[in-house]
Amino acid sequence: MTGSAALVTVLVVPLAGAVAALLAGRRGAVAAGLLTSALGVAAAFVLAGAVLAGGMQRVAVGGWAVPLGIELRADGLAAAMLLMTAVIGAGIAVYAWRYFGAAGHHDPHDLAAGPPGPAGKAAPASTQWLFWPVWLLAWGALNALYLSGDLFNLYVTLELLGLAAVALVALAGAGAAAAALRYLLLTLLGSMLYILGVELLYAAHQTMDLLQLRERLQPGLSVWLAAALMTTGLLVKTAIFPLHFWLPPAHGSAPAPVSAALSALVVKAGFYLLARLWLDLFGALPGAGVVPALLGALGACAVLWGGVQALRQTRLKAMIAYSTVAQLGYLMIALLLASGAGGAAAGAAGGAMHAGRDPGLPPTGGFVGKFALVEAAVRAGAWWAVAVVLAGSLLAAAFLFHALSRAFADAPADKTSAEVPAAPQLAALALALVAVALAAAGEPLRRLLTVGAAT
Amino acid sequence: MAAEVQVFDAVLVVLLLWLGWRALASADLFKAVVQFIVFGLLLSLAWVRLGAPDVALAEAAIGAGLAGALLLDTLARLGRSGAADEARPLGLTPARTGIALAALGLAALLVASALALPERWPGLAEPALQQLRASGVSNPVTATLLNYRAWDTLLEVGVLMLAVLGVWILEAEPALPRPAPDPMLGLLLRVLLPLTVIVAGYLLWVGAHAPGGAFQGAALLAAGGVLWHLARPLSLGPSPVVRAVVVLGFAVFLAVGVATAVLGGGLLTFPPEHAGAIILVIEAAAMLSIALIMVALFVGRERAPSDAGIPDSAADASAVPGAPNPGAAP
Amino acid sequence: MSGDDVRGALSLLLIAAGMLFFLAGSVGVLRLPDLLSRLHALTKADNLGLGLVVLGLMLQADDAFEVLRLLLVWLLVLFASSVACYLVARSALRAHGDAPTAAPEGPDEDTRDGR
Amino acid sequence: MSLALLYGLAGIALVAMGLYAALAARHVLRRLLGLNVLGSGVFMMLVALASRTTGIATRPDPVPHAMVLTGIVVAVSATALGLALLRRMHAHDGSPRLPEDRDAGSP
C-alpha cells in the first residue's frame, strides 16, 4: 500500500464504518464499530510507517492543485495523532461494546461512590446504539482534521467534530441537556470566530492552504486580527484556562466511554490546530513569540488550577474532567517550548500529547511525555516550566492515589467487582499496556514526530 | 452585475441592520423570531445584489424557511413560561458593558482591515472559471461545491446527518396537540406537493449551469415535507427505511470517493468526460437525504399520543400565539 | 415611438400600479382595526398588486418560457396566500371565539401563520 | 462607496450585534438567534468580498459562495440540534436558560 493510499484509507475507514453502523441498526452497530476500529488501527500503523519511511505524504483531493483545491497532508505530527486516535479509539470501542450493550448498565467508573451524577437517567436504551455511528463520525472528523491542510476544510471538520461531541454528551439523557447545550453554544461561537479569521486571511492572501499561506504571509493588522480570532475560537473549543468552564459539566455528565473519548481525543483536536497555527503559520510573524508565552502562562495556570480542583472532586469522572483541564495546560507549556526551541522540541510538544492521565510515573507513556517536556524545559532554561510540571505531577499523583484508595478501601461490599463486565476492564488494561508500550516506543515515536516539522 | 450603490442598497442595508437588531432585542421572543425570518428573506435579496443567486436561494429556503419553522416550533413547545424572557433582554449591565465594548472593538478592527482591502481583488475567481471546462458543470458555484472542494461538501453532508443523529439520541418529547385535519390544508398539500417535487428536480438539474443544486432542491422538498407533517403528522424516528434514506447521500458521496481513489486518478478525482454525470448522481442522492434530514429535524421525536403523562408545558403550548400549525387551538 | 418603447412604458405603468396596491395593502395592515379586515386588505391587495407587477414583467420577458414562469409564480402565490389567509382566519376564530374584534397585538398578526 | 464595501460594513455590524447577543443574552433561544445573526454577518462579509472581483473576472469569486452555502447548512444543522436540546433542558429543568444564568424569581 502506498503512502497516499494509506492516507485515503485512514480517512475513509471511520466514515464508511459510520455508514455501516447506521445501516446495521441496533444489533449490528457494535460489530461494525469493532471491525472499523480494527481496520482503522491497521491503516493508521501503515500510514505512520509510510511517513517514517518516505516523509510527508500528500493527496490533492479531486486532483485540483492548491489554492483552488484542498490538499491533505500527513507529516510526522499528523501521523502520530492519527495513530494515537486509532489506538485510544479502539480501546474506547471495546469499552463501549459492553457499556452500551448491558441493559440497565451502571457506571464502572463511578466506583469511587460519590453522590449520584447530575445526569439522572440516561437516554432510552433504544437509542444508545447510536453511540456507534456518532462516535465513528467523530473519529472520521478527527482524522480529517489531522490530515487537512486547508483552513476552511478545517472549519468543516471542526463543526463535524463539535456536533458529534454534543450528540455524544446528550447520550447521558435529559439531565445532560444543559451541559450539551452549553457545549454546543460555545463550540459554535468558537467556530464563528475561527471562520471570521479564515475569511480575513483569505481576503489578504487569496488562499486557504496552510503551506501556501505561510509563504505569502504579510504581517499586518488583518493577519494579527485573524490570528487573535482563530486562537480565541480554538481556545474556547480546547477548554484552555480560563475558558475551561464548560468542560467539567459536559465531560462529567457524559457516559464513561464518551467522557474518555472527549477527554483523550476531542479537546486535543483544538490544541492540535492551535499548535499547527502557531508552529507552522503565525510563528513567522515578527513579534509572534509573545503569544506562545501568553498561552504557556495560561497553561501553567491550567495545570495548577485543574490539579487543585481535581483533588477537591468526589466523583471520579468529575476528577478526570478537571485533570483534563490540567493536562491541556501541559500541552500549552509544550507548545511554548516547541515554538521557542525549534524542530527538536516540536517532538516534545507531540510527546506531551501522549501524556496519559497517569501522574507521570515510570514506566508509562505519561512519564515519557512529561520527561520529554521537562527535558525540553531544562534545555530552554525555562525553570518555571519545570516547577509547574513537577507541581502538576504531584497534584495528579495525589488525586489519583486518593481515587484509588477510595476505590479499593471504601467501595461498599455490595458493589463487587463481579458486576463490572470483563470488556471494560480488558479495555482499560489494554490502554494501560499501550501506555507502557509508548514508554518503550518513545524513541521511534519521537523520530516520527520530527518528520516534516516546520521549523 | 451592477457594482454601483443604489438607493435600493442603502435602504436594504438599513432595513437589514434594523431587523437584525430587533430579532435579537425584541422582548417578545415570538416577535424576535418573526423578525429573524423577515431578516433572512431580506438577506437573500442582499445576496442577489451581490451576485450570489445560489446563496440567495439557499438562504431563503434554509436560512429563513427551515430555521424559521424550527424556531417557531420550539417556541410553541416551550409553552408560555418557557418562551418568556426579561423585559430588556439585552439591556446594558456592568458585565454586558464589557461584552459590548469587546464587540465594538472587534467591529472597529474589522472595519480597519476591510478598508485596507483593495477595491479590485482577484480571489480565486480566475482559476475557478478557467477550470470550469474540466469540472463537468458550468455553474462555478456547483463546480466549487462538488468538484474543486467536494471534500468539504462530503463532510458537510456528514454534519447534517449528525444533526439528525443527535436529535434521535434525545428522549422523545410530548406531542403537540394537533387540530383535526383541515380540508383546505389537504388541498394545499395536494397541489403544492407535486409541484415541489417537480421544482426540486428542476433545481437539481439546472444547478449544473444556473443557480440551483442539491441543497436548494432539498430545501424545497423539505418544505413540502414540513407541510405534509402539518397536515398529516409524520413519524421519522430511526426506522430502517428512514435510516437508509438519511445515510444515502453521504454513502453515495463516500462510495464515489472510494471508487475514484481505487479505479482512477485519486480521491474524488472525476474524469472530465464523466464529471457531469458523477456530480448529478451525487447531487440526486444528497438531495433526497438532505430533504429527509431537514424534515426529520423539524418533526423531531414525539412520544406517541397514547402515552400517558403529558406534562403541563405541552398542555399550555397550544395557547402560545406562535404555534406554527395553523389552528392549534385549545 | 417604436413598439419597444410603448411596451416599456406600459410595463412601467403596470408595475407602478401594482406597487400602489402593495402600498394600499400595507397601509391597510397597519391601520385597520381587526384581524379579518387586515387579512382582507393584505391578501386582496397584494394579489392584485403582484398580478399587475407580474403582468408588467411579462411585457419585458425575453421568451415564452419566462412568461410562463412568471404566470406560475402569480398563480402559486395566489393559491398559497388564499389558503394561508383562510387558515389564519380559522385559527383566529377558534382562539378568540366567534367574533374577533381587535387583534391582541401589533401588526405582526398577519405574519403569524402565513408562512 | 462601492457595493462590496457597503455590504461588507453591514456584515461587520451584524457580526458585532450577533456576538453581543450570543454572549449577553440569557434565554438560550436568543443566544442561538445571536449566533445565527453573527453567522449571517460573517457570510455577508464573505459574499461582499467575493463581489470585489468585478473588473478582474467576469463573475464573482465562487469559492466564498460555496463556503457560505456550506456555512448556512452547518448553521441550520447546529441550530436544529440546539433547539432540540433546549426543549429537553426546559422539559427537565423547567428553565430555558443555562444553569449559571438562572436566578431566583425569573423564568
Q: Mind explaining what this structure looks like?
A:
The complex is a heterotetramer of chains A (455), B (330), C (115) and D (107). Chain A has one domain. Chain A is 74% helix and 2% strand. Chain B is mainly alpha-helical and 330 residues long. Chain B has a domain of 206 residues. In chain B, 69% of the residues lie in helices and 0% in strands. Chain C is elongated, with a radius of gyration of 17 Å. Chain C starts with a helix and ends in a 19-residue tail after the last helix. The C terminus of chain C is likely disordered. Chain D is mainly alpha-helical. The model of chain D has no long low-confidence stretch (mean pLDDT 92). Classes of the chains: A mainly alpha (455), B mainly alpha (330), C mainly alpha (115), D mainly alpha (107). The interface between A and D is medium-sized, with 27 and 32 residues.
Please give a quick description of this structure.
With 455 residues, chain A is an all-alpha fold.
Determine the number of helices of chain A (DSSP H or I, runs of at least 4 residues).
Answer: 17
Distance between the termini of chain A: 30 Å
Element-by-element helix/strand order of chain D? HHH
Percent strand of chain A:
under 5%
The main pleated sheet of chain A reads as:
2 strands, antiparallel
Q: What's the CATH architecture of chain D?
A: Orthogonal Bundle
List the helices and strands and how they pair.
The complex is a heterotetramer of chains A (455), B (330), C (115) and D (107).
Chain B: H1 7-25, H2 29-49, H3 53-82, H4 94-115, H5 125-130, H6 132-135, H7 140-148, H8 150-169, H9 183-206, H10 214-231, H11 240-263, H12 272-299, H13 312-315
Helix pairs in contact in B: 1-2, 2-3, 3-10, 7-8, 8-11, 8-12, 9-10, 10-12, 11-12
Chain C: H1 3-31, H2 35-60, H3 64-96
Chain D: H1 3-24, H2 28-50, H3 62-93
Helix pairs in contact in D: 1-2, 2-3
Descriptive terms for the model:
heterotetramer; B: 330 residues; mainly alpha; 13 helices; disordered C terminus; D: 107 residues; Helix Hairpins; 3 helices; 0% strand; elongated
